Amino acid sequence: MKQHHTTAFYFLISIAGIATLALFVTAFVWINTRPAMHPTFGVTYSWTYAQQLELDPIETYIALIDDLDVRDVRLPLYWSEIEHEQGEYAWSIPDTLMRLSEERHVNMTLVVGIKVPRWPECYIPDWAENLSSTELNAAALSFIEVAVNRYKQSDSVIRWQVENEPFFPFGECPEISVAQFKERVDLVRVLDDRPIQVTVSGEIGPWIDSAQSADVLGISLYRQTWNDLFGYFVYPLAPEFYFFRASFIQPYVSRVIVSELQAEPWFPAPIESRPLTDWYDTFTVEMLEQNILFAQEAGLSEAYLWGAEWWFALKQQGDDRLWEGVRPVFQ
């Protein structure tokens, strides 16, 4: 009897070993035979960040689409900067950016919601700061409806993004429930039939929950970050990590893209704490080129670079290395 159990045990171990070997062989073949990807590169454009860098947000955008020939843009619609008073809207800057995009045939992903790209992540108007969670959600839904209705007639809009990494605990943000997030996504679906993009951290946390609400899943891709313990830190991840995760999530979405590809420094201190050009050594053109190559090797179809305003700010200060270094990506 004991011998029978021992034989069965070794049989199961052998089967497990063969299955594991087959998995690794399949993975090796898959990685080394997948087609080379030449993703479409775009930028995330934050007009509030341009203003923080003391740039003219319209002049900066024109330089990106005319000089660098950027033709794919993710544009956040900042609630706090548009609805200063409840029911009163200031659309001047986004209207101008949209008009320029339409004239140049730029493909736009518009980001709506409370949490949108750039620190402090959540852009809540002063008048809404003390609302209850239920009241805040209702006010956010109202703004989303107005924003989508304003721009859904534009031929430049290719998709909507609802919130930005809504369940990733980063930024000065109130907690959002799954039900509230779903309500915002469902509202946009009712208002317009364009695809919905949802974003997640590429390195940390699950993708599946967000993917189930999305047509397109956007992931962040950062190589170098900062923390107080280690200082600057490079994620020990290979491009295959992102490729495999994207492959496993594909049954739930039409595509997985890089919605945020690091193309500027990770600032461990306020930008204003030193001259702008002194920051260059923390993110050089060689690091930019490495990140672009890494994104290509990850095998995803689109990648939106993070830091376009920064390149222009350095250029205005007389250092155009990043600006010229990124030019071949778009041209």
Q: What's the number of extended β-strand segments?
A: 10
The number of helical runs is: 12
Helix content estimate: 40-55%
The CATH level-2 architecture of the largest domain is identified as Alpha-Beta Barrel
Let me know the CATH homologous superfamily of the largest domain: Glycosidases
The pLDDT mean sits at 90
Order of helices and strands: HEHHEHHEHEHEHEEEHEHEHH
Largest sheet: 8 strands, parallel, barrel
The SS-based structural class is alpha/beta
- Coarse shape: globular
Rg measurement, Å: 22 Å
CATH structural class of the largest domain: Alpha Beta
Strand ordering within the main sheet: 1-2-3-4-5-6-9-10
- Cα(first) to Cα(last) distance is 73 Å
Low-confidence residue ranges: 1-30
Kindly identify the CATH topology of the largest domain: TIM Barrel
Number of domains: 2
Question: How is the topology of this model organized?
Answer:
Elements: H1 2-33, E1 40-44, H2 47-52, H3 57-67, E2 72-76, H4 79-82, H5 92-104, E3 107-112, H6 133-151, E4 157-162, H7 178-191, E5 196-200, H8 208-211, E6 216-221, E7 224-227, E8 231-234, H9 239-249, E9 255-262, H10 285-298, E10 302-306, H11 308-316, H12 321-330
Parallel strand pairs: 1-2, 1-10, 2-3, 3-4, 4-5, 5-6, 6-9, 9-10
Antiparallel strand pairs: 7-8
Helix pairs in contact: 3-5, 6-7, 9-10, 10-12
